[in-house]
Amino acid sequence: MATQLPKTDVVIVGMGWVGGIIAAELTKAGHSVVGLERGRSRSTADYYHVHDELRYANRYELMQDLSKETVTYRNNEKIRALPMRSYGSFLMGDGLGGAGVHWNGQYFRFLPYDFEIKTKTVERYGKNKIPADMTIQDWGITYDELEPYFVKFEQMAGISGDPEPSPLAGKMSKPFATGPMKQSPALKMFRDAASKLGLHPYSMPSANLSQNYKNPDGIERAACQYCGFCERFGCEYGAKADPTVTVLPVAQKTGKLDLRTFANVTKIIHDGKKATGVQYTHMPTGEEYVQPADVVVLASFVFSNTRILLLSKLGKPYDPKTQTGVIGRNYCYQVNGAATSAYYDDKEFSTFMGAGALGAVLDDYNGDNFDHTDLKFLHGASISLTQTGLRPIANNPAPSGTPAWGKDFKAMSIKYANRTLNVSAQGSSLPFRHHYLDLDPTYKDALGLPLIRMTFDFEDQDKELVKYLATKTKEIADQMGASKTEMRGTLSTYNIVPYQSTHNTGGVTMGADPSTSAVNNYLQMWDAENVFVCGASAFAHNSGYNPTATVGGLAYRTAEGIATYLTKGGSLV
């Protein structure tokens, strides 16, 4: 029998960016918070010897143990879903800080178009532009409503960027906290080439500090050293913003946060209208506990948020046949694959150096910044050149036609190791009625509970997007004066390997209509007013950007909403 614990004001499930932000804001306001993290504790001291590519990048030291819990996937309902047994398509973080520890730090506010995508599409092109099976919807919030919360995240994290970044993105009421990162010769070439083509490049907004910084909470952090070990690694300098060096210390300093690690939440306890708390298993011992609370916050990764709701039987599961129900609806991924490699015989670059968000980017082909009238897809992609640091095990660039082994392979690998640049597009992923998450009927985790199952494949929409955007990457790469360029512009059936992106979204989407959304614009459940489900699971689709800025902005707004709810109760909208 589970041990009953003393009640708290708020219990938070998952202590990454979302959990850390909400914990910091609520504890500063005087509320008691219990934070449950299923992985182990982490701090900057854990990364003093982190430059081990094999351990972290290839053997996934910071990631979830797939032998204990994984996901199953299938392309459609006609085939059996199988478990992901080794990492490929995406990486699921584990431990304090979550994916906020191992991210690159690339920071983008979603476009105003994203939040009103259905309305804006119909206004410009008519309702017939939207394919019959595509389930795009407005988010129930506008960019202008969310903008002040973007600012909160940027000032907390010390986001670095141009004073006036993209003329094609949403307006900013306040500049980024710090100036842009250094501009390497490769980035200057990209910006010059794009400008000559009439495009609008700018410095990639970065959570890798461009200078020493003290944030509004008094947290001081040092500037980035450009070591090239960001993605899949923690930062030993604390220069990369992550929850363990920003928001979590603030919450802990208040004395109002009870942080528990190795606490794997298995269900929300509720009566169908309100939750009374959560049940969790202490993984080292197998002991079960019930944590009562006035408010329950799900702040874990997309798959975990959706899975916990389905296991708890809270909210109506999505049925793709009838398109009724909301839990599991609108799962989206990220559409990559459009890129051009530029090989140089007469230039050499220090590509072994860099930072996770050292780059230049443009929005000319993102969102609805270009005319889609005669195109067979909606939305678009950001196009960028990044210098994140090419580590030796994972990176071995050589032109096509190079043998895969032997003397010539070695010669070409050595020649082009520091003579190759990549111009790539990161595309949006739009929802379809047959893309969703549910519980797998066959496979279970180490606790005997059903795994989450994803049903997803690339659509004609995605293939057309990649085909079009690839030509744009090649135009820029050709303008950069390479000796040879090679374009990649085809997309086939989705597979769980190789690695593509960790930007999974949807499953507990937000909106203004309870029939097509699980949460309102404060991420408060329609079906249980004291349950808030936060993170990228709330996204009704995925943009041509990294998701963290929008995740963070929504988290700050949710924290404000929870504080109001604790005082007044009831629906916040």
UniProtKB/TrEMBL annotation:
Keyword Membrane: no
Matches recorded under InterPro entries: FAD/NAD-bd_sf, GMC_OxRdtase_N, GMC_OxRtase_C
Name of the protein: GMC family oxidoreductase
Recorded family membership: Belongs to the GMC oxidoreductase family.
GO molecular function, one term: oxidoreductase activity, acting on CH-OH group of donors
Record lineage: Bacteria, Bacillati, Bacillota, Bacilli, Bacillales
Residue span(s) of domain Glucose-methanol-choline oxidoreductase N-terminal: 142-332
Source species: Cohnella zeiphila
Domain Glucose-methanol-choline oxidoreductase C-terminal: from-to ranges: 437-555
